[in-house]
Amino acid sequence: MHILHVVGARPNFMKVAPVLRALRAKLGVKQTLVHTGQHYDANMSDVFFQQLEIPAPDVNLSVGSGTHAQQTAEIMSRFEPVVLERKPDLVLVYGDVNSTVAGALVCSKLQVPIGHVEAGLRSFDRTMPEEINRLVTDQLADLLFTPSEDADSNLQREGISPEKIHCVGNVMIDSLVHLLPSPAEHPKDDLPERYALVTLHRPSNVDDRQNLKRILASLLEVNQELVVIFSAHPRTRQRIEEFGLASSQLRLLDPLPYTEFIALQRRATVVITDSGGIQEETTYLGIPCLTLRNNTERPITASLGTNVLVGHDADKLRAELAKILAGKAKLGSIPPLWDGHAGERIAEVLARKSTTQRAAGLH
Ligand code: UD1
């Protein structure tokens, strides 16, 4: 069986690594890795390949940045000939980025079966570009690998047949478990005793000047209580400069490599973010997470985990932070199947399918 993986943006890389590894252990599986080039900076891409031990991509489409339509269309037109030439039996797409939906659209028109890893997540907010990518990709996918049962329910409600849905757990947590840095590698002395780790990149938070200004004002307030370590996405850095909102009191770090960022999360007093994946990682690590969004496609991190949605409410952020600093942070537990073996479960499903199809003489 020939499986082709499509990745393109930072959050895809920690999801593909465990699946590649698990499939490598299966006999008779050929794998091809395509990088769309959606993320291209060394610290958004290469460093993740190195740390997660992902082999160099077989193909790099080098699409780079653009508007949503430009980026999606560019990926599609450069990816189509690759599929035609390489003739995979199945294409796996990951998460909810533009590379995901572009890969799925190409394969559906070429009638190449699609597997979607991290299927079924819904924020129910169609102003988020990722929500559109999730809805479309899930409609097109033949195999839907979900991280939790809420995702299964979302898919069934949308009319997706239960035979296509496989609840395998969270592949992002596989990478976390695999690479959880040992405390010895990251001595505590390097870091302040207490700090807030911050990331921000959602268009709704950073592309609007007023919203970004309000958030930065809240972060300056947090900065009076504890050190703020702000790892800035290129989009965020650009907007802060463009809108003239830079402040000497809030120092921006470049995006951090994976293991360094995990080590920082692990020791943080609180993580303040609008990322999806970080809501999951903090839940696994048991670190308080305050999410600067009104909704989440990962509700299990709030119902079972340590995540609290504070939206854009500065008072709520202040109140939740006060609780954490007073030692009264919300306690959480790790959701079922977030155990470091999701990639292996995906490989099992694929191996079973391949055997059934061989028996039926399909390939
Ligand atoms: C994308 C994903 C988002 C994911 C995020 C993680 C979509 C719709 N969004 O958002 O779901 O959470 O990745 O980072 O796919 N840029 C660089 N260097 C890079 C990449 C981007 O400087 O290596 C800059 C470019 O100016 C670009 C901007 O960042 O225009 C945004 O990049 P883009 O890939 O369009 O979306 P992200 O905001 O990264």
Secondary-structure map with pairings?
Layout: E1 2-7, H1 10-24, E2 30-35, H2 46-51, E3 59-60, H3 68-86, E4 90-94, H4 98-110, E5 114-117, H5 129-140, E6 143-146, H6 149-157, E7 165-167, H7 171-179, E8 195-198, H8 203-206, H9 209-225, E9 227-231, H10 234-242, E10 252-253, H11 258-267, E11 270-273, H12 277-285, E12 289-291, H13 300-303, E13 307-309, H14 314-325, H15 342-359
Parallel strand pairs: 1-2, 1-4, 2-3, 4-5, 5-6, 6-7, 8-9, 8-11, 9-10, 11-12, 12-13
Helix pairs in contact: 1-7, 1-15, 3-4, 4-5, 9-14
The protein binds uridine-diphosphate-N-acetylglucosamine.
Residues 9-11, 38-41, 44, 65, 96-98, 129-130, 201, 233-235 line the site of uridine-diphosphate-N-acetylglucosamine (UD1).
Give, in order, the helices and strands. EHEHEHEHEHEHEHEHHEHEHEHEHEHH
Shape: globular
Number of strands: 13
Percent helix among the residues? 40-55%
Q: Catalogue the ligands.
A: uridine-diphosphate-N-acetylglucosamine
Alpha plus pi helix count: 15
Biggest sheet layout: 7 strands, parallel
The CATH topology of the largest domain turns out to be Rossmann fold
This entry's quaternary arrangement is: single chain
Q: Can you list the strand order of the major beta sheet?
A: 3-2-1-4-5-6-7
**What amount of the residues lies in strands?**
5-15%
Average pLDDT for all residues: 95
Question: How many separate domains make up the residues?
Answer: 2
Overall CATH class of the largest domain: Alpha Beta
> Kindly, what is the distance between the CA atoms of the first and last residues, rounded to a whole number of angstroms?
8 Å
Structural class comes to alpha/beta
Name given to the CATH homologous superfamily of the largest domain:
Glycogen Phosphorylase B
How big is the Rg?
A: 20 Å
Question: What low-confidence regions span 5 or more consecutive residues with pLDDT below 50?
Answer: none
Second rung of CATH, namely the architecture of the largest domain? 3-Layer(aba) Sandwich
